[in-house]
Amino acid sequence: MSADRPARLIFLWNNFGPMHADRVEAVARRFPDAEVHGIELFDHDITYDWHSDTRAAFEKTTLFTKGDAPGLLARTRALIGLAWSMRRATWFLCHYERPEVFAMALVLRLTGQRVFTMGCSKFDDKPRNALSEWLKSLVLRPYHGAIGTVQRSADYFRFLGMRKRPVSSPYNTLSLARMRAQAEGVTPPAFADRPWVIVARLVEKKNLAMALRAYALYRESGGTRTLEICGNGALEADLKARAAEVSIAEHVVFHGFVQTTEISRTLARGLALILPSLEEQFGNVVIEAQALDRPVLLSEICGARELMVQDWVNGFAFPHDCPESLAGYMTLLDTDEPLWQRLSDGARQSAPRGDVAAFAEAVATLVSAQEERA
């Protein structure tokens, strides 16, 4: 078996959303002679309401359906059984922190399989403590390497003990072609009528209360665009109440959770994406926005800043605790159509950095590196 032609490649996630299917499909294109499989623990996701996705390019196995409520032992037995039944493969596992995934990785390593992890966490995502970081370094020991996303994510894997194991990039990717196809037929409004767009779960870490405050400041300075928010979550009632308190409720549209097709169509007619997160390992919606030529205003903490966003090129970054800064960038873009067009052009040019073809090459890098070590 050559480095370029592995016999079987298998990818594991909790649930196959569209971006996961995008990635595995891209790998199948990159390795046309390999058997490519996708495994999802569940056919639904407790965090996102997206539809479980599959493609003709790869086989997908679902271990548990919506009516199931498997405990840790049942999940562990299912994964270990799968690992034993699908031997002689190269495995890519997400969720290394879960006990059942660690058990699977350990069995794969002990039976001579090649096994890699995937993720986008960074050391600066949140406060860390020595004990939890040491435990992470232990559960990462079975892996031959990892796929992270650019420098900070790769550095975190190395901090956790992978200094002598290969770490490739990027992990966070999706199909630009799919996003663009989903937006076909949308007639964008005139520049003056384009809304601001937020795509995020309505939870604390997304920092939407600050975004509403920034939007209120923008309106006070004379801005007239509406704000459209796609997403659901526990804070929906609180955020609607906050919008009413600062007299912007009639200008803010809460769409609730929408599937990826509607996200594409909303972004296509928007002015720019806003991502104000307090904590954000990456922010895949940034790639979605750039796939549709939309500039991005995001907080400096977002991992996507490193790979995808450059000030004055395709967007702006602002401090997550400074609504005045976000409002200032909103006001700047509001009436300056030449600047907006320049940033839109920059978004289109940078979008390929987040395309799934790059993920497929990251997989190829690890496959090649492991073959060289063998």
Explain how this protein is built.
The protein folds into two domains: 8-175 and 355-373, 3-Layer(aba) Sandwich (Rossmann fold); 176-353, 3-Layer(aba) Sandwich (Rossmann fold), CATH 3.40.50.2000. Helices cover 42% and strands 16% of the residues. The protein is built from 14 helices and 13 strands. Helix 10 (285-291) links the parallel strand 11 (272-275) and strand 12 (296-299). Helix 1 (18-30) crosses helix 14 (356-373) and helix 7 crosses helix 12 (323-335). The longest helix has 18 residues, at 356-373. The protein is elongated, with a radius of gyration of 21 Å.
Quick summary:
With 374 residues, the chain is an alpha/beta fold. The chain folds into 2 domains: 8-175 and 355-373, Glycogen Phosphorylase B (Rossmann fold); 176-353, 3-Layer(aba) Sandwich (Rossmann fold), CATH 3.40.50.
